[in-house]
Amino acid sequence: MTPDQYCQDKASASGSSFYYSFLFLPKAKRRAITALYAFCREVDDVVDECTDEQVARTTLNWWRGQVAAIYEVQPQYSQGVRRGVPEGSALTLPLHPVAIALVPVVAEFNMAQELLLEIIDGMEMDLDQPRYNDFKSLQLYCYRVASVVGLLSVEIFGYQDRQTLKYAHDLGLAFQLTNIIRDVGEDARRNRIYLPMDEMKQFNVTAADILNANETENFRKLMAFQIERAQHYYQQALAQLPDCDRKNQRTGLIMAAIYRATLDEVIASGCHVLKERVSLTPLRKLWLAWTTWIKN
């Protein structure tokens, strides 16, 4: 199996909304964004699937080494040494299929090393911080695990106006807030609460309410507050996308359509997120992807 095929299998197996947004991209950009997405999935799985915290931290550090290796081989890759490294070289080579797939992506697109490392730092926050005191501290988490991905994706899709970076930042934040709203119950079963503690206090909702799936009227009011914030960030993000970059950023607009539809489904379901997880069917995701691509 080639590194690119590994990334493709990783993306398609997830059934994620992101996968459907990639389908209409030209081959080179589709390969690049699929490799980036596979990287995000790999480091996220380290935290979600590893039951030993120390092993998870060690594995994340190993991934930091893989990121360093990706950038260490860049000069040789750029000079045309693309089928191997000169004999006797002291270079540290990328070993994981995803890291190998990212080597040409980093070379072709302006992907900053520090941003890939930020994603790993964000995943590690799940080991360090199962609660967030306020929205400001939660924003850092959202930036690292979502807005950074948006900023890297923009480099792959292409843009002319730097205002598009603000769009990508805020759209990533809106996506992560949607994930948090949708996954309150699922996260609670992992002893994680991403709702700001000061806002829970404001609405008289306790951690025990969340962990025990106690769906009170106060909880519904708290979730309405969270939904309103997410909707605000969608509106703010889309308002910041310059017309000159709409065509290049159609993939992001597809993701926005799918995520906003998911948020609408959460609302329509009565926001019973403590006990159930709302999701769209693959056919609906594909339909939203196609219609958004055509309209933009």
What's the alpha carbon Rg, rounded to whole Å?
20 Å
CATH superfamily of the largest domain: Farnesyl Diphosphate Synthase
Characterize the biggest β-sheet: none
**H/E element sequence:** HHHHHHHHHHHHHHH
Going by CATH, the architecture of the largest domain would be Orthogonal Bundle
Mean pLDDT: 91
Level-1 CATH class name of the largest domain: Mainly Alpha
| Total beta strand runs | 0
* Low-pLDDT stretches: 81-88
Query: What percent of residues are in strands?
Result: under 5%
The separation of the N and C termini measures 35 Å
From the 3D structure, determine the CATH topology of the largest domain: Farnesyl Diphosphate Synthase
Shape: globular
Q: How would you summarize the topology of this molecule?
A:
Elements: H1 3-14, H2 17-22, H3 27-49, H4 53-72, H5 74-78, H6 97-108, H7 113-128, H8 135-157, H9 163-182, H10 184-188, H11 197-202, H12 207-211, H13 217-239, H14 250-268, H15 282-295
Features:
296 residues; globular; 15 helices; Farnesyl Diphosphate Synthase; mainly alpha; single chain
Question: What is the structure about, briefly put?
Answer:
By secondary structure, this protein is an all-alpha fold. It contains 15 helices and no strands.
Walk me through the structure:
There is one protein chain. The chain is mainly α. It folds into two domains: 1-110, Orthogonal Bundle (Farnesyl Diphosphate Synthase); 129-296, Farnesyl Diphosphate Synthase (Orthogonal Bundle), CATH 1.10.600. The chain is 71% helix and 0% strand. The chain is built from 15 helices and no strands. The chain has helices spanning 3-14, 17-22, 27-49, 53-72, 74-78, 97-108, 113-128, 135-157, 163-182, 184-188, 197-202, 207-211, 217-239, 250-268, 282-295. The longest helix is centred in the N-terminal third of the chain and has 23 residues, at 27-49. The radius of gyration is 20 Å and the shape is globular.
